[in-house]
Model the fold of this input.
Amino acid sequence: MASVRKTATKLADGRDFFYFDDSEPYVSGQATRRLDDPRPLADRFAPVPGPDGTETPFTGPIMRYDVLTGDWIPMAAHRMNRTFMPPADANPFAPAREGAEYQDGEIPDTDYDVVVFENRFASLMQVPGVPDKVRYLDNNHLFPERPAAGRCEVICFGPRLDENLVSMGPKRMRTVIEAWVDRTRELSQMPGIEQVFVFENHGEAIGVSLHHPHGQIYAYPYITPYTEKMMRQAKAYRQSHGKNLLSAVLEAELESGERIVAQSEHWVLYVPSAARWPVEMHLAPKRQVPDLPSLTEEEKADLSEFYLKMLRAGNKFHVAADGSPVDLPYVAGWHQAPREAQLDLRLHLQLISIQRSPDKLKYLAGSESGMFAWISDTTPERIAARLREVWED
Amino acid sequence: MASVRKTATKLADGRDFFYFDDSEPYVSGQATRRLDDPRPLADRFAPVPGPDGTETPFTGPIMRYDVLTGDWIPMAAHRMNRTFMPPADANPFAPAREGAEYQDGEIPDTDYDVVVFENRFASLMQVPGVPDKVRYLDNNHLFPERPAAGRCEVICFGPRLDENLVSMGPKRMRTVIEAWVDRTRELSQMPGIEQVFVFENHGEAIGVSLHHPHGQIYAYPYITPYTEKMMRQAKAYRQSHGKNLLSAVLEAELESGERIVAQSEHWVLYVPSAARWPVEMHLAPKRQVPDLPSLTEEEKADLSEFYLKMLRAGNKFHVAADGSPVDLPYVAGWHQAPREAQLDLRLHLQLISIQRSPDKLKYLAGSESGMFAWISDTTPERIAARLREVWED
Done:
């Protein structure tokens, strides 16, 4: 590991909290400076009071099986009231105030480099004592439901609200990568976890409610529909062609060159031949690996530079009428192979944006929302050409 | 058919245009009043001029096969410049101006009831002389592409910008239903069409760019991902249980009653047990039919009243802080059985909304956009209870 020190602690309501320190003297979270978390946070697992004074045991979020599509749908009804766009002075991801006797946000220290903690408003949650079993709503076989027994974590990329991955630079990016690796490794070993998704939502246009630079990690207790589709395609491809599908795609893209945006020593950035979003990039290591923990030190070091170049190019993609660049709203997510598809799937990041032009967004309307049938307003070759145009090495 | 008269004509660029008249003297589109369409619209199929003075034949939109997911992605690059939020006096769906010598919008008459015409900015298009064949981009088997040889139609529900389906009432709704039936019947018989999707996008929040009351009809040259999922589930259910999946679901919902919103003589409105959107309703005929053309006169007459009650309930779902109702942004789309799934699939409408609360929207961020894994912030039972509360017979 690069010089990153991990320290584990707990928040007042029992949630796990991890410091990933990259700067001397690596003190955040140490007993000498750590603040207690005496916030009156409700016990996450406390019984739920009913209108008639009775209490029902808290069983956590559930998920329903959508028999029409075959998808599991977690229902996080308790998230309805989550924090939304608080004023800057109520930023829950800011470090605790210097000199304060206790923290008033999520962070139990007055400074940090990178921290990861369980989401307070988690839509996936493992509740002690609640068995991960299917039961049938209305006793009907068509209505299966199960605890949404996964885990949602937040990763703060740095202590300051006015910074972001690009401004913080490669050293911090490297720490973020180490945190991604660590969380993927630990979460994928938790019982009941089928798949770990490391992602970042960036920009108000896609609904980001807290502007502090942060990402998220979802550990799903099921295989997501996108991954299921990829697994089906990759398995069929292995059966017919005897090789890994994404490796074949990468070779084909490199041979064509048409949609390659840039390469580093260990990584390739390209626009997929069937890009469905106004801006879409796939970032893959040149070596076939299933997930983030499989990356070598060299690959991670290289990624910490290359990832930021990718983000910089994204921010130059659109230029406003007055010549100023448009901070690209995006979702960047790592596709990692679940346990049962270690050979068929292959690590890659997908960065997508709904920004169609400097002042227009793509909306997911009838075709996309109703039929899951994406229609692109551009072509992958145009996207790639524009990205090459603004690329800076 | 109810007293609806259909008249077919063509627009200046050769697009099909259909009047559906429901009011005496059924004259719209008649030779005596019809205006020519002398707008200088470019021939839709004209060769495309290149930068060096040469011309390439227009081959229409293409679609690429996304080998990672198995989805076809149409690429309507020419739609990038489509009309977006024109001022009210440039409404292209308004009737031609009385006394004008020629039309300046899409409508070749000074009045109409309901009209349907091919979308000027179509993402799916059949171009004469272009064979519907797969070719391989870069000569690579991983990059198949095909003409996006489908059809996109627009349906205007009435002549006035300030009206909507609810305000126009059941008689007009009935005409809209007849137009849906007619277009489904004709489009599903066109060569190469796999599936007809009749839908309405409503509200700026989901990106509606023209406020004139209208819907859309997509005739896809492929089976959409949502329908494919339903076909897979329904086939498996028929094999294991010997019956139609949606029929079984409907029986189970009626037996439970928990999520039933309302019933009419021929229709049932319910919230599905795994609703994934903040507001979601499914509307199904009580009789098992594959598509809109299979409905009886009685079922259509009943629907023309019941559909509007459904929309009215949607508009009362959220109430703003000042007590005023929130005009619900929604996508309402008809799931119809493709040819090869007439027995397995069953007609139903899905109405979905991203409006989480009077002032909050659901965004499709990391989990939904990156993994196609929806997470609901509420429960189907809450949605159903609220809809029953505001329902008015």
Notes: The first helix of chain A runs from residue 165 to 168. The helical segments of chain A are 165-168, 170-188, 225-241, 245-256, 297-317, 366-371, 380-390.
